[in-house]
Design brief:
The chain has 8 helices and 6 strands, in the order H-H-H-H-E-E-E-E-H-E-H-E-H-H. It is of the alpha/beta class. It folds into 2 domains: 16-75, no CATH class; 98-231, Nucleotidyltransferase, domain 5, CATH 3.30.420. Strands 1, 2, 3, 4, 5 and 6 form a 6-stranded mixed beta sheet that branches. Strand 5, helix 6 (187-194) and strand 6 (197-200) form a beta-alpha-beta unit. The longest helix has 20 residues, at 240-259. The protein is globular, with a radius of gyration of 19 Å.
Length: 260
């Protein structure tokens, strides 16, 4: 378990500069007893260390308070709004337009724990029993949207449900790169419903071993970034919506470090 450093903080805590980026999105809420920065620090501690809610250390607000605010913010979709705000800032800092013109989509199958919960299945290709993290990113690997669903659901079947979450948020988006798992998605459906082009890059029959497809490696790198957070090493959450929130928080934490 992580310990506080010499300045009395955990490595997962927000710095002053990072908190300055986050604070405006919490200004609409009133906090009487507990500091919202410390509530967020407790959530980031849990995400980084992979601990249970009840194991949040003394020095943070009580775990019941932290969990209450986490659930409230998740239901208000605050973590997605935070991700959107930070992604736009991160893109501008890289000399890009705030809204991307291209995106990349893929899934990551992860095991679930024994505590149960809805939305579980077995991925027959990867032999994983659990859920899929269906992720779409820009070409920098920064999160645009995430949908968590049973691992037995096909990528193409779930794609429209993921893309609905992007409507009205990415005005410059024109093309989405994908692998052969999406080759059954009708191009006419994509254009009629979303006005986006799905570009499917398949592997040649003569290829063997690992060979990253054009544009596709960026989302694989995003999945590797998730490995920095123990809470994301498996799917520990009872509800898929909570799993999605944890993915958004992990990406928000990563982007905060990039722009401060």
């Amino acid at each position: 378990m992580a310990s506080r450093n010499c300045s009395g903080r955990y490595p997962s805590d927000l710095t002053d500069a990072e908190w300055k980026r986050v604070k405006p999105i919490l200004d609409r809420f009133q906090f009487v007893e507990h500091d919202p920065r410390e509530i967020l620090n407790a959530i980031f501690y849990l995400l980084k260390g992979g601990v249970q809610w009840r194991m949040i250390p003394d020095g943070f607000p009580p775990w019941q308070t932290v969990y209450y605010h986490f659930r409230k913010w998740r239901r208000l979709n605050l973590f997605q709004r935070l991700c959107d705000r930070l992604r736009r800032a991160a893109r501008v800092s890289e000399g890009r337009k705030p809204s991307p013109s291209a995106a990349v989509v893929d899934t990551q199958s992860v095991s679930t724990t024994r505590q149960g919960g809805p939305g579980r299945g077995r991925d027959p290709n990867k032999q994983v029993k659990g859920r899929k993290r269906h992720v779409i990113t820009d070409t920098l690997g920064l999160l645009l949207g995430v949908l968590v669903h049973p691992a037995n659901e096909s990528d193409g079947q779930s794609l429209p449900h993921l893309l609905k979450r992007l409507l009205g948020k990415v005005p410059r988006l024109k093309v989405i790169f994908a692998d052969s798992a999406y080759e059954d998605v009708p191009a006419s459906l994509m254009w009629r419903c979303f006005h986006w082009v799905l570009s499917v890059a398949g592997r040649e029959d003569s290829q063997s071993g690992f060979d990253p497809l054009p544009k596709r490696w960026v989302v694989e790198r995003t999945f590797s970034w998730f490995g920095a957070y123990r809470r994301l090493s498996q799917d520990y959450e009872y509800h898929p919506e909570t799993s999605e929130a944890m993915v958004r928080l992990g990406m928000a934490r990563l982007m905060l470090r990039r722009i401060t």
